[in-house]
Design goal:
Elements (H helix, E strand, L loop, with lengths): L18 H15 L1 H4 L5 H7 L3 H16 L4 H11 L3 H13 L9 E4 L9 E4 L5 E8 L4 H23 L4 E8 L5 H17 L5 E3 L2 E7 L13 E8 L5 H18 L7 E8 L6 H11 L10 E12 L4 E12 L1 H8 L14 E3 L5 E5 L2 E5 L3 E13 L14 E9 L2 E5 L14
Parallel strand pairs: 3-8, 4-7, 8-9, 10-11, 14-15
Antiparallel strand pairs: 1-2, 2-3, 4-6, 5-6, 7-14, 9-10, 12-13, 15-16
Amino acid sequence: MTNTPIALKRRQNPLLDEASKFDQAIAAVEKTFGGGWLAKGDTPLHQLWRRTDWLASGQLYLLGAGIVRMADHPAFIKEQVAAIRSEENRRRGAMFELVGVPFFAGQAGVVSPTKRHARGYDAVVDFEGAGQLHLSLKNFAVTHKEREFLSAAARLESRFLDGLKKWKQRALGLVALSETFATPQAWSELSEAVDHLIAKGPGGIDRIGPWSVLVHDLPPEYGPYSERLPSWQLVVHAGHAPNERQTVVDKLSGGASNARKHASQDAGVARALFVRLHENADLESFATWASEAIQDTDRGPLEAMILYQPGLVDVTASNERAISHTFAFAHNSAFSAWRAGSAQRTPSLSPAIGLVSHEPAQRRIVSDKGEISLRGGYFHQSGRYRAVLPFGEGEFHLPSPAAGIVREVFLQDAAGGFGIAPIIPPDGRLTLFD
C-alpha cells in the first residue's frame, strides 16, 4: 500500500454551476499578473495560485471578479498590481483596494477609484449626481503576536507527531486551551508535557501552566483508522496579547485621523473609513470602539466607519463551509442626515462570492460531550484522519469534519492498495489580504 494518496490537480470551482464566470475571473488574474510571475514566488497570492482547493479558488475568484468589475479603470488596476508585486506593506494595501473597492459596485451608485496619489481617499461612490460617498481603505493584516502564535503552534504540532510515532499511537487528538496570552514559558511547558500526555493517553483534563489540555480518541465514525500511518488532530487556542487591542485601536485612530485630515468639504458628500480586520480580531470590541469614535465630530468630517472581517464559517444546515464577509457599520447623525438628503444615497456592499453577515461568527469546539465557545484569541487546528477500507466498488464522500482536518481513505486487498485524498484547504485561514 502506498503512503502517498492520489490527489487530483484540477482547480476546484466553488461556484459549481457557473463555470464561465469562474473561468473568466481566474483568467483575469492570470492575464493581469502574468502566468509566469504567478508560478514563481512565495507571497500569499503565489501560494493561492499553486493550490487547487475550493478555498484558494474562492479567494482567487474574489480577486479576479474585482479585476473584471474594475475593467473600465485600467490605470487603477495597473497601479495596484505593480504595488502587489512589490514589497510587503504596499502589497497588502493594494490587494485590499483591488478587491475591496469593487464591493461597492452594486445596484446603487457607480464606484470609481480616485486619481493616482490622491491623499486621504481611495475611491468615490457616485449616486447618479445625487451625492457621493468618499472611501478611505485600510487593511490590517495578521499581527506580529499572532504570527508568533501560529509558529509556536506549528512547532507544537511537530512535537505532537514525534510523540505519536515514539509511543506508537495511531488515532489521537490533543486540545490545549488558554484563556490568557501564551508566553514563551507557557509554550515551553506545554511542549515539554506532550510526551507524558501521549503516554498517559485519553483521560481527564490536565492543567499545564495556563493551559487546559485534553488528550482524546478520534471520532470512531471516521475510522477504522490505519495501523501503519498515524491519524491525529491538534487544536490550540490562546488569548490575545495584552496590547493587541490597543495596537489595532491606534491603527484605526490613525486611519480615521488621516481620512478627516484630507476630507472633502463639498456639499452632498459623506466620508467613510473602510477597514479590513484579520479573522481572529475581536470584531465586536472594535465595532463598539468605532461606534463611540465616530461621534467625535470635532476632529473633522468623517461620517461612517465600516469594519470588515472575512473568514471561513461552517454552514450548519448543509454541513459545509463557506467564505463569510462580516460587516460592522458605525455612523453618526451627519451620515443619517446625508442619507435622508436623497433616496438614491443607498450604499451597498456586494462581495462576488460568499455569505454576508452583520454578526461576528462564533467559534466553537463540538464533540459528543458537548461544546465549548471560544471568544477572541488566536486559534490553530490541524490534523489527518486516515481510514482503511476493503477494496471494492463504491463511492466515497470525504467531507472534512473541521477546517484544517484532512481525511484520507486507503483501499486495500490481499495484493496491496492505494490511497484517496480529497482536495481540501490546508487550514481554515483566508490569506489573500495578508
